[in-house]
Amino acid sequence: MIHLERLDHVAVIRVDRPERLNCFDYPTLVELKELVATVRREPDIRVVLFTGTGKAFSAGADLKERVTLNETEVRRNVEMIRDVFADIARLPQPTIAAVNGHALGGGFEWMLACDFRIIVNGALVGLTETSFGIIPGAGGTQRLPRLIGETRAKEMIFTAKKIDAETAERYGIVSRVVPTVEELMEVCLAFADEMLRNGPIAIRQAKQAIDQGLDHTLSEGLKLETAAYETVIPTEDRLEALRAFAEKRTPQFQGK
User: Fold this and answer.
1) What 8-state DSSP symbol labels residue 130?
2) The dihedral sign for the CA sequence 40, 43, 46, 50
3) Helix, coil or strand: residue 5
4) Which of 17, 128, 145, 221 could form a disulfide with 153 if both were Cys (CB 3.0 to 4.6 A apart)?
């Protein structure tokens, strides 16, 4: 149901349930959680890319499964999808959502858990949960307003409306709209390559400083930045960058 492909220092995690619009049933969530844990443990993986197979990125929770569940099982599923997306958000590597099609409900929350979102033209995104009598329960009520502001987030959630790729770019939800699915992976991998040229330890520490700092005051965030900087000072990568600068060559970072 989910495939992990390694392309040099990039891990591509692909949900492969096109017949169900890549919906998340419980077994799929368990598998995704395990793969996220796998890439977290691999220092050689420097960028993680998430995508789907077929015409949808993900339509969210598998409602065919959901109607068969009792309240305890529903709570179990919601807790699992929330935990999985939190795991993605906490990955030390930069993460890219290659949004190959519609991203609705939990599928939209999945892309919100990533650092960057690049979308194909023609895709629709939205938090549609209130139309089913529930609320976004996998981070949508928290991540979306932090990304686009309270008013627009409330509008999207309260109306359950779907917006197109161009509007998502205008709102700041996605950073780029790509004309076709065929070009999407090429663009995402090119973006990943831009990050791969830089020090992997430095990128991880910068991500940690940014993510943690957003939950603190500026003065506390600056202390987090100082701690992150202290981590990179003794690294071989820092010394390699200085040598490369002096020798007028491209640094060869080893993540050490």
Assistant:
1) G
2) negative
3) strand
4) 145
pLDDT by position in tens, the chain (length 256): 899 999 999 999 999 998 999 999 999 999 999 999 999 999 999 999 999 999 999 998 888 888 898 999 899 999 999 999 999 999 999 999 999 999 999 999 999 999 999 999 999 999 999 999 999 999 999 999 999 999 999 999 999 999 999 999 999 999 999 999 999 999 999 999 999 999 999 999 999 999 999 999 999 999 999 999 999 999 989 998 889 889 889 999 888 8
Residue 253 lies in a domain: no
Residues 159 and 184 placed together within one structural domain of the fold: yes
pTM above 0.90, yes or no: yes
What residues act catalytically? 109, 129
- Residue 230: enclosing H or E segment and its boundaries? helix 218-232
Whether the Cβ atoms of residue 58 and residue 23 lie closer than 8 Å to each other: yes
* CB-based contact 119:178 (threshold 8 Å): yes
Question: What's the structural domain count of the chain?
Answer: 2
SS3 content of the chain, % helix, strand, coil (to 5): 55, 15, 30
DSSP per-residue codes, 75-127: HHHHHHHHHHHHHHHT-SS-EEEEE-SEEETHHHHHHHTSSEEEEETT-EEE-
Does 254 reside within a domain?
no
Question: Is residue 164 situated within a structural domain?
Answer: yes
